[in-house]
Amino acid sequence: MRFEIIEKEYMDLIIVKDFLKYTGKEIEPLWAFKNFNVQKDNIVAFRGKIEVDQEHMKDLKDVKREQHIKTPIRSDDSINFIVEHFDMIDLKTTYLRQRLLICIAKEIIERECNKKLKRDGDDLYYNNKKLSVSIACKGITSSKIHLGINVKSKGVEHVEIIGLEDLGVENIKEVMIKIALSYIDEINKIEKDIRKTLPI
Amino acid sequence: MRFEIIEKEYMDLIIVKDFLKYTGKEIEPLWAFKNFNVQKDNIVAFRGKIEVDQEHMKDLKDVKREQHIKTPIRSDDSINFIVEHFDMIDLKTTYLRQRLLICIAKEIIERECNKKLKRDGDDLYYNNKKLSVSIACKGITSSKIHLGINVKSKGVEHVEIIGLEDLGVENIKEVMIKIALSYIDEINKIEKDIRKTLPI
Amino acid sequence: MRFEIIEKEYMDLIIVKDFLKYTGKEIEPLWAFKNFNVQKDNIVAFRGKIEVDQEHMKDLKDVKREQHIKTPIRSDDSINFIVEHFDMIDLKTTYLRQRLLICIAKEIIERECNKKLKRDGDDLYYNNKKLSVSIACKGITSSKIHLGINVKSKGVEHVEIIGLEDLGVENIKEVMIKIALSYIDEINKIEKDIRKTLPI
Amino acid sequence: MRFEIIEKEYMDLIIVKDFLKYTGKEIEPLWAFKNFNVQKDNIVAFRGKIEVDQEHMKDLKDVKREQHIKTPIRSDDSINFIVEHFDMIDLKTTYLRQRLLICIAKEIIERECNKKLKRDGDDLYYNNKKLSVSIACKGITSSKIHLGINVKSKGVEHVEIIGLEDLGVENIKEVMIKIALSYIDEINKIEKDIRKTLPI
Amino acid sequence: MRFEIIEKEYMDLIIVKDFLKYTGKEIEPLWAFKNFNVQKDNIVAFRGKIEVDQEHMKDLKDVKREQHIKTPIRSDDSINFIVEHFDMIDLKTTYLRQRLLICIAKEIIERECNKKLKRDGDDLYYNNKKLSVSIACKGITSSKIHLGINVKSKGVEHVEIIGLEDLGVENIKEVMIKIALSYIDEINKIEKDIRKTLPI
Amino acid sequence: MRFEIIEKEYMDLIIVKDFLKYTGKEIEPLWAFKNFNVQKDNIVAFRGKIEVDQEHMKDLKDVKREQHIKTPIRSDDSINFIVEHFDMIDLKTTYLRQRLLICIAKEIIERECNKKLKRDGDDLYYNNKKLSVSIACKGITSSKIHLGINVKSKGVEHVEIIGLEDLGVENIKEVMIKIALSYIDEINKIEKDIRKTLPI
User: Fold this and answer.
1) Which chains touch A (3 or more CB pairs under 8 A)?
2) What InterPro entries does the database record attribute to this sequence (chains A, B, C, D, E, F) (predicted)?
3) What is the pLDDT of residues E143-162, one digit of tens each?
4) What is the pTM of this model?
C-alpha cells in the first residue's frame, strides 16, 4: 500500500494513495501502527469501497435493525477517515470527537459545493439522502472513529444515499485531505486552549 | 429574575425571561443552582449586555493581549449560553463540548439567515467580523462554558463585530432557544450512542 | 420474553414478567440493550433459577474454591437484579454500588419480614444461612452487577442457604420491584447531591 | 489533643480521646495530617458538639433553606466521623462512600439498640426524628466525608432530632469505634474484591 | 511451586523459590492471584529462563522487527519481575512505573557491581550489550509490567547481551529481592507523598 | 527576562538566560504561559537562588518540621527545573514523573562528575549531604514539579548540603540543559511506547 505521512503537533495524517476497501477490520486498535508505523494519535484518510459485514459492525442498534442484511454498511466509492486517539479513550469523549469530525466535514463540503447539508447526530444528509456512515468505539488502550462519506450514490439498496459527486464536489482527494487536516488543526487548537485557561 | 425550566433527559434548559448582563461572574461553579435551583447538568439561555472586566476573564491569552482595556469583552446586546456539566469535568472534554455548541449555533444561525458563517476554533465570523465570544473552564466539581452571540454590532471598539440582526435573523429569542435545545439533544443522543456500541 | 420498562431520571427499570434463568451470560456487556432495547443505565429485575457454570463465573476466588463443583452458583428460585452503568465504569465504583444495592435490599427485606439480617460485604445472611449471591464486574465500556436473592432454600448443596419465603416474605414480586426502584432512587439522589455541593 | 491511631491495611483510624467540637473547618483537606500526622486514607472519630456556621457549610441547598439561621447545623453532643480519601476523589465515588458509611452506622446502631432506623439518602431517622447530619465534599487532591450522629436530642431548634441515648445506646464510645472500624473493613474488603474479579 | 510472600503497605512481594520460565503468559491479568493467592498490588520475583513466542509478545514494534524469529525474547538464565497494579491502570502511568522500576534496578546493580550501566528508555546496557528486556501492559481491570534481567549472556542470538554474572554480581537472589523491595518502598513512599502535599 | 524556547514533540523546553530566584511562586499554574507564552506541556530551566518562605511551601511535612524557620528552603546558587503537565494531572502520576526527573538528573550528574550519588525518594545525596530539593503539586487544570539542585554548598544552615561544583561538575549550564532535554525525551518516548503496545 502506498501512503504519505504528514506530521502535525499532536497527530499524524496518513494519506493512503491506493484505493482501499473499508471492511470494518480497520477499526481495530493499532491498525494504523501495524500498517503505517505511526506511533502518534492519527487520522488515516483513504478512498475506496465500504463493505462491512454483520460481524464487524460495532453499532448494536444497526446490527439489530439490519440483521437480515449480510453486508449492511456499503458504498461503492467513498472517502474514509479512521481516527485513533490514545490520550483520552473513554467513549463519551470519543463520540464528542466524532461529532466534531462530522461538523468539520460538513463545513468543508458545504463550502466546496455551495449547498447546505443537514447533520443529525453522526449522520450527514442532503435532501433526506444519506451522505455518510460513522461509528465511534473504545478499546482497552485506544479509542477509534470511522467516518465514511459517499463519493457515488451507488452500492446501497436499503437506504437512499447520495455522494459527493452528486453534490458537485470536484476534487474529491483534496476535500478528503482538507477534512483530515482541519480535524487535526481543531484537536491541536484545543490542546493549546487547555493550556491558556484559568480555573474557576 | 423570571425564568422557565424545561427538563430534558440528562440536562435542564433554563430560559431567563428578563434581560440579564453577562459579567463573567456567571461562569462560577453552581451559579445555575444558586439562581434557578437546578440540580442537573444544564444550559442557561438569556439575552443582555456583555461586560467582562479583566478580573473575571479566564482566557489568559486575552488577558495578556488586552491588558490595557478595562472591559475587554463587551457587547451591547447578545444572546448568552452558560453550560454546566458535572459528569466529565476535565478541560479537554469541556473544550470539545464548547466546539460542538458553537457548531450547533452556526448550523442554526445559517439556516435562519441563509448566510454562510465561518468558524475558527471557538469563534464565529461573517465577512471577517466577529459574531461571538466564548470560553470553556474547569472547576473542582464541574466544568462550564460561556458562549455569547452578538445581537447588535455595537458596544465593542477594539475588534470589528457583527450581530444577528445585521445577518437578518428576526426571531432572536426563538433562535436562542433552538440553539440551547439542539445542544441538549446532541448531548442526550451521545449518551444514547454510548449505550449501543460494542467495544473493540 | 414479556417485560415492562419504567423510565426514571438517570436509570431505567426493566421488570421481566416471565421466569428467566440466570446463567452468568446475562452479566455480559449490553445484555439489557440486546434484550430490552434500553439505551440508559439500567437495572433488570426478574425471578427464576440460578445456574452458573464454572466458565461463566467472574469471582476467581469462588472458581478456585469450588473448582470441583460443575455449577457452583445455584438456586432453585430467586429474584435477580442485573445493573449496568456506563457513567463510571471502574471496578471500585462498581463494588461501592454493589454494596449499596445490597444494603438497600437488606433494608427492604428487613422491613418486609420484620427480621434482622446480617450483611458481610456482599453477602446477606439470616441465622448464618446464606440468602444471596452477588458479583460486580467491569468491561471495556460498562460495568455490571448481579445480585440474586433466594426465594426458596432449595437447589444448593455445598452451602446452607435460606430463602425469602423462609423469612416470611409474602409478596416476592413487590419486594423485587421495591429493591430495584430504591436503588434507582438512591442513584438519582446522588446525582442531585453532586450538583449542590461546594468544593473544599 | 489526645488521640490514638489504629493502622489498618488501606486506612488509618484516629480515635480522639478528648471532646472536640465539629465546626466545619475539619472538612478542609489534610486536616487529619495537620492534626494527627497520618499519611494514609483515614477516618477520624470523635465525640463533641456540632456548630457549623453558614460560612463553613458545603451543602448549598441547606445554605439556601436555612440562610436566616446563623448556625444551622448543630448538636449539643454527637459522635463524629471525618473520612479522607486520596485514591479516588471524584464526588460521585465520595457520595457512594458516604452512603455506605451511613448504611454501616445504621446496621451497627440497630444491632446495638434493637430498634429499626430509617435511612433516606444520607439521613438517619427514628420515628421521623433526625438522628444524623452528613456531607460529602471534593477538593483538589482529596475527598472528604463528615457524618455526625446525635448522642443527645438537644441543641437544635429548627428540626426535631433524636440522639443515641434516646434510642437506648449505652456504650457510645464503643459504637463510635465499631462504626469507624466497620467502614475501614468494608473499604479494605472492596480493595480485595477488585483484585479477584475477572473482566467481562 | 514454592514461594514466600512478604506483605508491605500497598504491595505484596512474592519470591518464587523454584526456577520458573517466563513465557509471556505470566503477563496476563490476575496471574499472581491465580498462582499465589495475593489480593493486593504485587510484584512477583523469580529466576529462570525467558522464552517468549511471537504470540505472547505485547510490543508490536518488536513483533514487526522480529517476525522471522520464532521466539524473539529469550534468555537462558534471568531474574524476572512481574508487577501488577489495580489502583491506576492507564498505560501512561504504567510506563512511568516501568521506568521507575528500571531506574531502581539500575541503581541497585550499579552499587552491587561498582560499574556504570546505561539506561535508554526501558532498556539497560553495559558496553552496548543488552542487560534487560521489559514491557508494560494494560488490561481491563489491571496493568502489568515485566522486567527480565539476564544473569548469563547466553540464549540469545540476534542481539548481543550481557548478564549480571558478567558484571561480577555475586548474590543474584539477594539483588533480585533488593530490587523488588526497593520498588515497593518507592511506591509506598509516593502514596505517603500524595498525602502531605498542598494543592496549588 | 531573556529566554530561549526549544520545541520538542509533546513538550517545550524554556531555557532562561538570566539568573532567576526561585521563591515558590513559580510553582503556581500557568506560570510558564504567563512568562514565556508557551501553550504546551513544558519544562523551564534556570539558574539562581532558592528562597521559599513558609507561605509558599507545598510540602506540609516540611512546613510542620521547619515552622520555626522563616525561609526553610534555600540555596545560594542552584539549577532549577519547573515542569508543567496538562495531560494527566493527578498527584500520583505527578510524583511518578518527579521521581523519573530525579533519576534522570542523577544519571546525568553521575556521568558528568564520575561519582556515585544516592537517591532517597525525591532527594539526591552525596556522602549524606543533600544535593537537591523537590516537590510535586496538583492544581485544577495542571500539575507541576519543582526540582532544585545546588550549585554551591552555601545558603542553608539547618541541613548539610552539597553542590554540583563540590562534585566537580564544570559546565553547569550544559548539565542543566541535558537534564531538561533528557526528561523531555523520556516523556516523548513513553508517549510512543503507549502507541505500540497490545492490551492484555
Assistant:
1) B, C, E, F
2) aa-tRNA-synth_II/BPL/LPL, DUF366
3) 999 999 999 987 677 789 99
4) 0.97
